[in-house]
Fold these 2 entries.
Entry 1:
Amino acid sequence: MAARFPAGHQAQMAFLLAAYTRNASVVAALLGTRARTVHRHCRGWSLPPGPRLQRALRRRVLDLVCPRCLSDRAVEEARQAKRDARRAGRRIPGEQDRPHR
């Protein structure tokens, strides 16, 4: 897996674009950024991506390179959803209807 993982944000962005058939708008939606930003980073834009974009980029590339990571993440997201549902059920009913100030 380590041999298939692209090194550097420019290589990772190019890898994602290739995986999604050169559709920059899909990659941008997955990363939470604009298509123009995706194109700039693929061409070696002088500004490196910020920490949030770096994490999203690494996570998406890792999901494509390692399918087990994707299933592990799905299990963790399901656990988190159950926790959130339990927390929402424990809230006092009157507090949910009032607007926050």
Note: The mean pLDDT is 80.
Entry 2:
Amino acid sequence: MTEWYIEQVFATRTWKLRKEIFSSEGKLGEVMLDGDFDATHFAAYDGNDVVGVLSLICSADSYAIDFFAVAPHARLRGIGTALLHYARLFVRTFKGRYLLVDAPHEQQYFWEKNGFVAGKQNGAMRSYSLSLANDLIP
């Protein structure tokens, strides 16, 4: 049985984990997006603790994934894949056609396992895209 659950949340609910993962020594402002309050956010909870976050930024018919993270102690439990599944359902519900992400090259297996196609590489980062036109998610 899964001990955690996912729900759509306000941006502020994602900031603590974002800071811990992406800027532990920095300032909170470093993990706040300009469009945070216009974006869509999902959080995975273990009890009252946020253990995973994923933010979506909409641009026309595409949605970009930003600040996608799972707490180190909660990894390898399917939380990241579940967050991605929720994001795909959300984008499909709102007639989005593409899901895009820039991620470290070493995460290529995760993204390709989830149907994304690798694109351009820029340093340590690589672009990935997923066309939802024929998405067969149940």
Note: Helices lie at 15-22, 79-93, 108-113.
